[in-house]
Amino acid sequence: MTTITVIAGVFILLGAGFVAIAALGIVRLSDIYLRMHSLAKAGTLGVGLVLTGAAFALPSVGVVVRAIGAIAFLVVTAPLASHLIGRAAHRTGVPQCASTVMDEWKEDRSES
Length: 112
Description:
It is built from 3 helices and no strands. The chain is mostly helical and 112 residues long.
């Protein structure tokens, strides 16, 4: 077993762990806003680590370029999509969990 194979395996296992944490957050967290946060943060990091592991495991130029492109696409689009889903949920009146202390968008609902 080579060093590159071990490094690739570590990245893939770490990524799979973060994806599992994101899936656990989807199941366990109480409202759409917390679930969305879990999926956007842990899911993006997990998939990025798996793609990095794939780039190490298959070190051809095409695979590395595709992995970098996919990671860049995820880093750019996941926060934006998460924000828009949260904003749409808030504007349509999806309730927050009972332990929510502050609603920074409360006044913003009257604008549209």
